[in-house]
Amino acid sequence: MHEMSYVVRFAEKAIQAAEEKNASKVISISLSVGEMTGVLPEYLHRYYPKVTKGTILEGSELKTTMVPVTTECSGCKKTYNPTRENKYLCPYCGDGAGRVIAGREVVLENVEIEVD
């Protein structure tokens, strides 16, 4: 249940950002969630109201966007999304080696606020 720790961490960051901007209300926060993280957005959404209760985030919307795994091929240097169907090989040259360049992160992308 590491989703709870992610919600706590990003709620703290969002509260700090809102306070720095003298927000009167937070409308939403947006997270991007990499497919390789093992973080399940449904649990983020489940814990969000509990974590934000009694804070400036209470009543705000949590928005999540999944980030697909993107790999840069070591052979041809093209980027692709590895899949089970292609045995995680580069679809351009068939190389099996690559460097993951996206899909491992959970990032606070935006805090939408209102200021009086």
Structure notes:
With 116 residues, the protein is an alpha+beta fold. It contains two helices and six strands, in the order αβαβββββ. The strands form two sheets. The chain has a three-stranded mixed sheet, covered by helices on one side. A three-stranded antiparallel sheet has the order 4-3-5, with no helix packed on it. 22% of the residues are buried.
Write the layout of secondary structure elements.
Layout: H1 2-20, E1 25-34, H2 41-52, E2 61-67, E3 70-73, E4 79-80, E5 98-102, E6 106-114
Parallel strand pairs: 1-2
Antiparallel strand pairs: 1-6, 3-4, 3-5
Major sheet description:
3 strands, mixed
Which structural class is indicated by helix and strand composition? alpha+beta
Query: What's the average pLDDT?
Result: 95
Strand order of the largest sheet: 2-1-6
Low-pLDDT regions: none
Count of β-strands: 6
Rg over C-alpha atoms, rounded to the nearest angstrom: 18 Å
- Gross geometry: elongated
Q: How many helical stretches?
A: 2
| N- to C-terminal distance | 37 Å
Helix content: 25-40%
Succession of helices and strands: HEHEEEEE
Fraction in beta strands: 25-35%
